[in-house]
Amino acid sequence: MEATDRADRVFSELLSRTGEAAPEPRLAATARVLELLGDPQASYPVIQLTGTNGKTSTSRLIESTLRAHGLRTGLFTSPHLVRFTERISIDGLPIADSVVADNWEDISPFLDLVDSELESRGEPRITFFEALTVLAFACFADAPVDVAVIEVGMGGEWDSTNVADAQIAVLTPIDLDHTQRLGSTIAEIARTKSGIIKAGATVISAAQPAAALAEIQARVEAMGATLVLQDRDFALTEDLVAVGGQQISVRGRAGSYEQLYLPLYGDHQAQNAAVALTAVEAFFGDGTAPLGEDPLTEGLAEATSPGRLQLIGVEPTILVDAAHNPHGARSLRAAIERYFDVDEVALVIGVLADKDAAGILTELAPIATTVLATQSESERSIPAEQLAALAAELLPDRAVAPYESIVDALIEARDWADQKPRRLVLVAGSIILGGEAIETALDREWKP
């Protein structure tokens, strides 16, 4: 069997388990499998990230900078855009199909054993994300890596990734999201997310709402940790538009870093870079020594963030962004207004049922000339007709139409954009939809 087929079979077996939309709030099951495997997650230092927005981009920026400093890195992010192997990267590349399949064969008997133990106690068996977490930790130990950068799946306190003893905890901006699982207030959500803070850890936090910061500070004090807070202990001091991205300057804990090129769009990405840089400072000498100019420049310049204002087509321009809550949509709108010199935007949007579709549409309304409401293949998607009706209600002065598939919506949006200069197509509202848009562009060779 070819390596690709073996890896696809791994994904099929993962999908046979309870999905990511219904995580089990527990650590013991994941910890038990890892214990049987010899605790691979304890064989390398871990930097763990949580937050509402910016987790994946910040994780990638940290990983790229660590790799530029000569370290062999592991990166675990979620969800994926096109293929599940994107979630597990080693030295900046998605894990090889053969490697992921070999590691799956190694861990499968232990997953089965713990499944039996759980079922004998009347508990749900290992979930999709718990199994994937185990797989990632095992792959990183097998590589082996010098450091692993781990993004939580949901929340923090009971997320399966929290079995790792991360001595650097990174918190990106916290806002309302996954309210049915994490709580209905920012304070409740922050309480759950701050659960990644371990005893004696160094905590790097983006600027936070007052309610979130209070919860973070309480956890820091309880765990004897050290809080490094944006705009108090470090700061973004310059952010200028540049060709293909931006030029930033950052005041870190150990030094100041001037005129760094960041090939990502959006003020929020500059803020993410400041957080990432400070996390890397903490990793090397606990923030007491400045980072080397050359590896820092290289690390940021080579950073990528797939699905975040990603260019997937030209003539006309098509951008994909994973914004799937109002906070992310607000940052996306600001980036379009500042970085892209266009007159009109076709918004191709699809949203999952557990997300704030009205809030996302309201935030993106100022830049949307026309709205093409669609749906991803996920069974959790809001039907296109329903989303179109909501968009028409919220944006009564815009042209709104439903499209059953992302392919149909993109073809129509491209035709519209072709009719006049300075028009842009923007796909947003769902990470799953973004992945389908990327696949569509690849299939139809809308090359950027």
Folded structure, characterized:
The protein is of the alpha/beta class and 448 residues long. It folds into two domains: 3-301, Mur-like, catalytic domain (UDP-N-acetylmuramoyl-L-alanine:D-glutamate ligase); 310-443, Protein-Tyrosine Phosphatase, Chain A (Alpha-Beta Complex). The protein has helices spanning 3-15, 28-36, 55-68, 97-120, 128-142, 179-182, 186-193, 210-223, 267-283, 293-301, 326-339, 357-364, 384-394, 406-418, 431-443; strands at 46-50, 73-76, 88-90, 93-94, 147-151, 168-171, 202-205, 226-229, 235-242, 245-251, 256-262, 310-313, 317-320, 344-349, 370-373, 399-402, 423-428. The strands form three sheets. The chain has an eight-stranded mixed β-sheet, with helices on both faces. The mean pLDDT is 95.
